Amino acid sequence: MAVVPSSRLGKIEFYESHLAAWAANAEAIGLTPAQVLALQTLVMTARGSWLDAETARESSKASTLNFHTNTDNMAHIGSALLSNIRSFAETSGDANVYALAQIPAPSTPAPVGPPGQPYELGIGLSQTGAVSLTWKCDNPSGASGTVYEIQRRIGSESFRFLEIAGERAFEDGGIPAGSTGIVYQITAIRGKTRGPAAQFLVNFGTGSSSGVTVSDVSDGDMRIAA
Hints:
The chain is of the alpha+beta class and about 230 residues long. The protein folds into 2 domains: about 10-90, no CATH class; about 120-220, Immunoglobulins (Immunoglobulin-like, Sandwich), CATH 2.60.40.10. It contains 3 helices and 9 strands. The protein has helices spanning about 10-25, 35-90, 95-100, and strands at about 120-125, 130-135, 145-155, 160-165, 170, 180-190, 195, 200-205, 210-220. It starts with 7 loop residues before the first helix and ends in an 8-residue tail after the last strand.
C-alpha cells in the first residue's frame, strides 16, 4: 500500500501533515534539520502554485461563462437584425438590399413535382359485402396535403365519382348486387395538381362456401396481382 497519495494535491497535503513531526524529531528519525527545512520550502512553493492554479481555473470558468453569455446575446440580436433585413428586402421588392447587407439572397425553392401514380392495389372483403381498397403511391419529397380521388366504373357505364380520401385507403360499401367486374380509378391530387390516374380491375367470383370473393386484380397495364 502506497504511503504517499498519487495525486499532486494529495502529496502536498501528506507532507504538510508530516512536516511538524519530522522537524521536531529530525535526528531521531534519521533526518537533518536542513533537510526538513528544504522540504518545507518546497511544500510551501508547491502549495502556492496549487493556489495560483485554482485561481486561474476559477478565472477561466468565469471568463468562459462570460464569453458564452456575450456571444449568445450577440447571436440573438444579430439574428433579429438579419430577419429585419430579409423582411425589408421582401416587402420592398428590392433585391439590392441583400448586396448592400452582404448576405446571400434566399434561394428560390425548386417546384414540387406532381403527385405520383397509385399502384399495388390491395383488396379486402367484409362480411357485409363492402370492399376495402388500399394502395401505394410515391409522392415527391416535401409534398404535403395529397388526397386521393376514387372513381368507379361497373360494366360499360361511365366512371362515377365516389370519394376524396385523405389516406391511401377507401371502403366501397355501395357495390350493386351481382356485380362481377369493377374498375376503380384512383388519382392523387395536391391542390390543383393532379397526378397520373391509375385504373384497377377487380373481378369477383362466387365460392361454394364463402360467398362472393375477389378472384383477381389487375392494373392499367393488365399486370395480374392475384
